[in-house]
Write a structure and sequence with these properties.
This protein is α+β, with helices and mostly antiparallel strands. It has helices spanning about 5-15, 25-35, and strands at about 20, 40, 60-65, 65-80, 80-95, 100-105. The chain is about 20% helix and about 35% strand. Strand 4 (about 65-80) and strand 5 (about 80-95) form a beta hairpin.
């Protein structure tokens, strides 16, 4: 585990106010997270996220120290030519340097947040 990349992410995050992260700060957090992702302890079934999936694909990015939370689409197997995507919440605990898979968030079949358009304005159905 390379603590240098995690320390860079922590250093950047300590200067951000708690709450939603948007704009250039969001892009910066995604890049620091991309660099540190493989150095974090991956737990609770979170091993399917590859670091390159984090750039321009996180939504509802929020910082409540020490937790960084975000939503990201997870693509399942195809059936009859259709790709089933789920939006999942992920949490990164910067105090313990581990990631946790949060809850799956069902969404309407017509909604998609792939390729950088996923944000908190997507239609989410809570069940």
């Amino acid at each position: 585990m390379d603590q240098v990349r995690i320390k860079r992410l922590r250093a950047y995050m300590k200067d951000l106010p708690a709450g939603q992260i948007a704009g250039s700060a969001k892009r910066n957090v995604e890049e620091f997270l991309f660099e540190a992702w493989n150095d974090l302890k991956i737990s609770q079934g979170d091993s399917r996220v590859e670091p390159y999936n984090l750039i321009n694909r996180t939504g509802a990015l929020s910082w409540q120290p020490p937790l960084l939370t975000f939503r990201i689409e997870s693509y399942e197997a195809t059936a009859n030519g259709s790709i089933d995507a789920k939006v999942c919440e992920r949490r990164v605990n910067l105090g313990t340097a581990e990631t946790l898979l949060g809850r799956a968030i069902p969404q309407e079949k017509t909604q998609s947040c792939a390729f950088g358009t996923c944000d908190s304005s997507a239609i989410i159905i809570e069940r």
